[in-house]
Specification:
heterodimer, A: alpha+beta, Immunoglobulin-like, 2 domains, 5-stranded mixed beta sheet, 1 helix, 10 strands, elongated, B: mainly alpha, Cytochrome C Oxidase, Chain A
């Protein structure tokens, strides 16, 4: 089969850049550990409280070490459960200092949800029977909207919270 | 052999036109839903009569993504097969069975959605449960399309038997590739619907394996977009060269690129599931690499198209570095609309590279960036090429002509579409980069600067959406004119011929066992181990949920 000379040049250049591109994302994934989140940890969706992280008293923000935080969340249509504050009211906003390392752990009691802290790299699917987990360093100060970005029903757009990063 | 100026027999034309009628009726209904969505999400308007935003979102996705595309493709491909290899009476009868099966399925699903029993969007992710009629309707659309698949296979088989030793006509070869891909891919979603969703929605199975259902859906969901794209590629390779007065660039390269698309469009579904918790990241990466193999046929296609443009222009005597470009038939809508489609594929493809990238995906997953992306690819590249085909196919079928006035309206339509889509898609891309979610009704969330920025882009989307709807009205007007009122005559069915001195096409390119064998092997490689993992590590299944979708 005949290939025109220019087409050979074009395809060589194209395939070369493709190979380079794949090497870069492969290097980042396998050597730098930037795989998208996949923990393959399962949970009974009808009994999430059986898991230590999702017991009602363990929900919400906790400082686990100097500058290191864990946030446990249970999603359900159409709410993120971050636990309750001192007055027994549901927490809708969590605050962490700039530069802290935050591990988000979330699961769902009912349907599929999303969990995105808009403006950061925290973006996960939340599926019944699985635990989603992502650790990030909060480098920028500001208020970040937490949105459910996977359709979960007719109240989907009312499912939100806020993460505030302060100086 | 190719009777491009001879009209089809009436009974054939009627069959192909039936598919076109459903296509353009879907365009009007689905487009109206799109308009209502952008207006509603701007926050400036409320949907009347208590209509739910997610009902119209489901209608929009199902009617445009599944119904319009499938009906257009099946109808167009029947016309291509009829023109190149012919259709027997028996085949026509089965083609009608395909049409009616698909139509009954469509109407069943549409009614279920409209009465509010299926607010599950076109991806129908479990464990949200729609009424069983929704899943049964979708299954019928797919089964109907399978009948079309086997009629197309049969058409080429009969032709080959009658023409021993001859290579198949290029367009017939391309149709069979596309249908082979569609059949192999839709087995995934059909399995999920028949074995998982229908028994579970009827209450015969208590729970459903959510991750398995999503994996089977996306095994189908990515090849679905290539199923939309390949008919556009058929037009770019084998029809546009004729429209601009040129010849086929290379029969062999066109076939090779279709074979590569067949092989690399299916074992790639995990790139839609990169942020899901239950799939091993190494297998995600392997499918990411396989996804990017489509770069090869895409680059080959881009080269062929522009080489055809330049060769044709130079042969006509246009001088200078860009003389051939300046003298392309810009005033011929049959060329202009697909050409703008090709241009839109450059940012569309670039955005696709971001989406499928192992890590960058996290930034844009489920943001409205993705909606902006596929409104460039399917709603510009693909649909403008389909419109470009309809401008000559519809009058060819109805025995009418694309008059200069209708051609001019078509050019105006193309420009309106381009302007509207540029505004809408660009603002979707930017809002997505800023974290704005897709598939969501208007919401202020917790308020604040971030949300205010999103809303300003949503207003831009409403402006773009309104312009696009004007484009749809104009397109419907043109279609009605071409179908019923344009002056009688013979509109050419343009099929490009090979150069007189073209090299012979290698026989191996028609070795179906080889190419389908490699395709199946790649699928087994990419999916066997991860699917076994998914089954072995399944969590307890999910009960159905009706109340979140308002049932």
């Amino acid at each position: 089969m005949h290939l025109h000379k220019y087409e050979k040049i074009w395809l060589t250049f194209g395939l070369g850049s493709l190979a380079l591109f794949l090497v870069i994302i492969g290097f980042a994934a396998f050597w730098k550990g930037t795989h998208p989140m996949s923990h393959i940890e399962t949970i009974d969706p009808q009994n999430v409280e059986a898991h230590d992280s999702f017991k009602p008293e363990n929900l919400g923000l906790r400082e686990v070490a100097e500058g290191k935080y864990t946030v446990n969340i249970v999603a359900s249509a159409f709410n993120y459960d971050f636990g309750t504050d001192a007055d027994g009211k549901p927490v809708k906003k969590i605050r962490v200092p700039k530069g802290s390392t935050v591990l988000f752990q979330i699961t769902t009691k009912d349907v599929v949800h999303g969990f995105q802290v808009a403006g950061t790299n925290v973006n996960m699917m939340v599926e019944p029977g699985h635990v989603s987990r992502l650790e990030t360093v909060m480098k920028n100060v500001g208020e970040f909207t937490v949105v459910c970005n996977e359709y979960c029903g007719i109240g989907h757009h009312q499912m939100f919270a806020t993460v505030e990063v302060y100086e | 052999m190719m009777l491009k100026n001879v009209l089809f027999p009436k009974k054939d034309a009627r069959l192909y036109m039936s598919f076109m009628h459903v296509t353009f009726a879907s365009l009007l209904i689905g487009g109206l839903m799109g308009l209502l969505q952008t207006l509603s999400r701007s926050g400036e308007f409320q949907l009347p009569f208590g209509i739910n935003y997610y009902t119209i979102l489901t209608v929009h996705g199902v009617i445009l993504g599944l119904v319009l595309t499938t009906f257009f493709i099946v109808g167009f491909q029947f016309a291509l097969m009829g023109k190149t290899v012919g259709m027997s009476d028996k085949q026509r009868k089965w083609a009608w069975v395909a049409f009616w099966t698909m139509l009954v399925g469509t109407i069943t699903a549409a009614i279920t959605i409209l009465v509010g029993q299926a607010n599950v969007l076109y991806t129908f992710y479990a464990p949200l449960r729609a009424h069983a009629a929704f899943y049964i309707g979708l299954a019928l659309v797919i089964v109907g399309s399978w009948i079309a698949v086997f009629v197309n296979f049969r058409q080429l088989y009969v032709w080959k038997k009658a023409h021993p030793g001859q290579k198949s006509p290029l367009l017939a070869f391309m149709v069979v590739i596309n249908m082979a891909m569609w059949f192999i891919a839709s087995l995934g979603v059909a399995t999920s619907v028949l074995i998982q969703f229908i028994p579970w929605s009827l209450g015969y199975a208590a729970t459903i394996n959510v991750l398995l259902s999503r994996t089977l859906f996306w095994y189908f969901g990515h090849p679905l977009v290539y199923f939309w794209l390949l008919p556009a590629y058929m037009a770019w390779y084998a029809i546009i060269p004729k429209i601009i007065g040129g010849k086929l660039f290379s029969d062999s390269l066109a076939r090779l690129s279709f074979i590569l698309l067949l092989m690399f469009s299916i074992p790639v579904g995990f790139h839609h599931q990169l942020t899901e918790p239950g799939i091993d990241p190494t297998w995600k990466f392997i499918q990411v690499v396989l996804t990017f193999m489509v770069v090869i046929p895409t680059l080959m296609t881009a080269f062929s198209i522009f080489a055809t443009f330049e060769t044709t222009g130079r042969r006509k005597g246009h001088k200078g570095l860009f003389g051939w470009f300046k003298h392309l038939p810009w005033k011929d809508v049959r060329f202009l609309a697909p050409f703008i489609g090709m241009v839109a594929f450059i940012p569309g493809g670039a955005g696709g590279i971001v989406n499928a990238s192992h890590q960058m995906n996290t930034l844009i997953h489920n943001t409205i960036w993705v909606t902006g992306h596929f409104h460039l690819t399917v709603a510009t590249t693909v649909i403008l090429t389909y419109f470009g085909i309809a401008y000559w196919l519809v009058p060819h079928l109805t025995g009418r002509r694309l008059t200069p006035r209708l051609n001019k309206l078509g050019i105006i339509q193309t420009i309106i579409w381009t302007v509207g889509m540029t505004i809408m898609s660009t603002s979707m891309h930017i809002q997505g980069l800023l974290g704005g979610p897709r598939r969501s009704n208007f919401s202020n969330y917790a308020g604040g600067a971030q949300v205010d920025t999103w809303i300003s882009y949503q207003i831009a989307q409403a402006v773009g959406g309104t312009i696009l709807f004007i484009g749809i009205i104009l397109m419907i007007y043109i279609f009605i004119q071409l179908a019923f009122f344009a002056p009688r005559g013979v509109q050419e069915f343009p099929i490009a011929e090979e150069e007189v001195d073209a090299e012979p096409t290698p026989k191996i390119l028609e070795n179906w066992y080889l190419w389908i064998g490699i395709t199946v092997a790649l699928i087994l490689f990419a999916y066997t181990i991860p699917v076994i993992d998914i089954l072995k590590h399944s969590p307890p299944g999910s009960l159905p949920f009706d109340w979140p979708i308002g049932r």
